[in-house]
Each structure stands twice: as structure tokens, then as C-alpha cells.
Description:
The chain is an alpha/beta fold.
Amino acid sequence: MKKAQIVIGLGFGDEGKGITADFLASQNPEAVVIRFSGGQQAAHTVMIDERKHVHSSFASGALRGLPSYLTEHCTIHPVFLLNEREDLKTKNGNIELHIHPLAKVTTPFDVWQNRTNARNLEHGTCGKGIGATMKRHESPYKLFAIDLIAPREMLMEKLKGIAYYYGFADEKEIDELLRPFLEAVDSIDWKINDYTWLASFNHLIFEGSQGILLDMDHGIFPNVTYAYTTSKNACEICKLLKIEDIEMYYVTRSYATRHGNGWMSNEKEMDLRNNEEETCTFNDYQKELRTGEIDYNLLNYALKLDAAYVLSVKKNLVVTCLDQIDEKFKVENLDIDFDAVYGSYSPYSKDFKQIF
């Protein structure tokens, strides 16, 4: 019987979804890891012995040797993807990547829009073109993964249309911005496959992006992401593949975090330790990683919200970074019964311990 394990963040992102997916990959070496939201803005960090990799365009299983699959709900940027592929090669990671034909493609013009638009900067952006790409796809100016293997003349017409959509008129400037993009497109052996490709796997690991509290329908507007960060997309894909054996892994740090603008309860500077490998550091777009005490009311809200999308399945809780603060995480403050609770005592360790 086919089995699916779905990894979901309970907060505003940065919970530890990557190491959770890697943990599951270590137990199921014949599986495939599937990204079902988000894109090149992800920073899912995994450490295996001396090897460390920040997964963005590849799923958190690649460093361990598993193939990656990006669904139609993801975005891709050929330049970022190529750079990460070359980095993975040096670490003996698995660079096999299959992409749904309708995954959305980010162009240099989308990145420019994200980094220069005052409204985007106010709402919060990672500066990698995700929001602009999703917004553009509400217009006729769409670009999908399948277009990357279309005749070059057709691809160029679409790219120039996107440039004009953003107000670019100088042909020389357009060509200059497109040069590295097109070089990356030509350097990648694109494997464009729909969901039937997944049918050959008996074990599927779905790796979520960001967290439930940033969901485009359920977060606090305007500081939300252009994605469904609940189990909605993953469950719909499981239904298409007729997978009924589904197991949830809900992830939170032992304290709250938020990277970027927007409301956050219990916010305060935490006295952290053992966090030398923290990936979420300052950048010009997201600014500082904000912290706060864990809010059990918000965790209960996120858990009950996701229950509206997923059927009655086995549920596990994963609490990461337990060694970074003195406060004890109180499972009894949650209103849901879990089949198991796992704790991670090192932020990027593959060693999880069952604590309940």
C-alpha cells in the first residue's frame, strides 16, 4: 500500500521542516520528497556529518540521496536552481529533480519587481521574486515550467511580454537581464513530468513551506505568502494518486519565530544558545529573525485549522531546538491527541528522540 507523510510548519516558518523531512528520508531511502508550495525562497537546512546544505530549489532529501519533485504549486528560478544543483554536486547530493509542467517560473523581471516595489517591501518579501511571480500569474502574462522546453522563439516572446508587463522598454536592458536566465535554462536537463511520475513510488514525503500562520487564506493580510501552507495541496495530490495511508508531522520550534514584517504574539528577544548554525540571519529584505515565547493558543489554532483540510489520520508533533532555551515545552497545553511527539535537540541534527 502506498504511504504519504506530510510535513507542515505550525508557525510563521523556520520551524524545522527541512530536518524533519530529512529525518523521514533517513528512514525511507526509497521514497521521493515532494515540495507542494513555495519555491526558491526556502531555506531548509540539513546537516549530515560534515555536510551542510540549504535546500531551496531541491527538496530536503537531496543531500541524503533521494530525488526531488516540485508540484504545480511551486515556483522555480532557473538561475537559483542551477546554482544549487552545482552546490549539491560538490556534496554528493542527489540532483535528480522532476518538475510538474504547470510549476510557475520566476523571471529576472519578477525579482526586480520584488526588490524595488515599495508595497512589496512594506508587506514583506524575501527578494527572490516569489510574490511577483504569483501576482503576475493572475494576469495573462504566465510562464510555466513546460515553457522552458518549448521552441526558443516561443519562450522569448513570452519573456519579452513579461518584460513589457513590468514596464521594461529598452531591448538592450531586457537582453542583459535575460542572458544569465537563458544560459541557466540551456544548462539544465529539464525533467518535466506530471503526477503520473510519482505513481512508481510506494512512499512519498511531502515537505511543506513556511508555516500555517502565513497561509494566503488564513494568515493576517497583507503580511501573508502567496501559497497554501496548510496540508491542502498535499492532500489533494494524495487524492489524485489514491493514497489513503497518510501520516502528519506538525513542526514547531520550542519558541516562536517570524522572519519579516507582520503581527506576532509574545514577541521578545530570546536568550538562545546552541544556535551557531542558524540559517535565518539578517538580509536586506526580510531583516532580522524575530523571536518570542511559544504561544500555545496559536499552536492550537493552527492544528485545528489544518484539521479542516486533512482527513482523520495519524498525527505526530515535532518540537525542534529544545536545547536552545531553558523553558520546557508543555505538550499538555495542546488540545489535540498525538500518536507520537518527537524532539530535536540540535537545530539541524538528523537525530530525533521520541519524548512522549
